[in-house]
TrEMBL record:
SUPFAM superfamilies: Multidrug resistance efflux transporter EmrE. It is a multi-pass membrane protein. The keyword Membrane applies. The chain crosses the membrane at residues 69-95, 107-131, 137-154, 161-183, 231-250, 270-290, 311-332, 338-357. It comes from the Bacteria. This is EamA-like transporter family protein. GO terms for cellular component: plasma membrane. It is found in: Cell membrane. Keywords: Cell membrane, Membrane, Transmembrane, Transmembrane helix. It comes from Roseimaritima ulvae.
Amino acid sequence: MAFCPALPLCRTLGDSLLMSSLPTLPSRRRAIAALVVVNAMWGSSFPIVKSMNLQIDQHFAVTEWTASHWLRGVSAAWVIGIRFAAALVLFLLLYRTTLRRVGLPHVLSGVAVGTLFFMGLLLQVVGLGTIPASRSGFLTSLAVVFTPLIGTLIRRRMPRVPVILAAVLALLGTAILTGLFVWDETGIGIAADARQKWTLGDSLTTLAALFFSGQILLVDQLGKRYDSVAFTPSMFASTALLAFAVFVIFSGQIPETSAGGWATLAMQPSFYGLMALLVVFPSLLAFVWMNKYQPSLSAGEAAVVYTMEPLFASFWAMCLPVWLSVWCLIDYQNERFSLPLVIGGTLVLAANVLALWEPGKAELPPRLNATA
């Protein structure tokens, strides 16, 4: 093949154009503060979604314990579909300037991120149908371990030692927060419902954690290359489309029936009021900020920050339910302040301080041997 003398010049020009098109990332401190707020908004979604599930139970004349797994899975897909379709509409109305910057790479990136996110959500919901909430919360938090492990395999570069230690500390804190460990007169032990044999639900929830890890890594990689906020519309669209597809395909399997079906439920003022809260804060704002600010941190650091979500969920669960129960006419009581919340929350906060402590001018972690 003949050598082209212009090839080195073309490469240099192409590299300079690529570098000039790279996004300007927000400062590290601003990114940390923003992601803490993101976790606070995500945490609020737990009592909101719980209230919506109780309304769905009332509508179909079932209880939390008698509802079929089909109803749980299909209703989750229905709520996810409406949630992210509405978030997409709001994004198109409020972020018109960003839309002008959306190109094919942003669309494809958003579809990839949205697909991983939806698969994680779906597997988590389906798995929750057969395992206790404590096990589900703990297994989902394994993303804090999977993320640096997968990142190490892909990039052949070890995370910083503080990030590794923080991941272990955050995992322990999450186990306490989610009730995996209990305190009684005999001392500290593992919760009885957490000692059941490994089931399909455990496998599905662990797989969900892997998908969430993939989402974190993908936002980290692509967000450092492109304008990550421009991922958001296609991320919302792909998540909504996949959710509606699951709803359409499997809604016929639901054994429960109700007068008026899903449309009657969606028209209840209390239901679409809850949906409005879910769309604006834990969906639109939270994911726009996640896409914008996460690339300023490493994937391992971001995974540790995201372990603050169950801490905020516990906080909101002590404040919101009584107000939501009055508004929605459901039986939903506030959770109580507890010792596991203090201990688990302290460990999670300590893990974040450890992982996010500015390394200063420390040397980069050594690259792994490419042949290892």
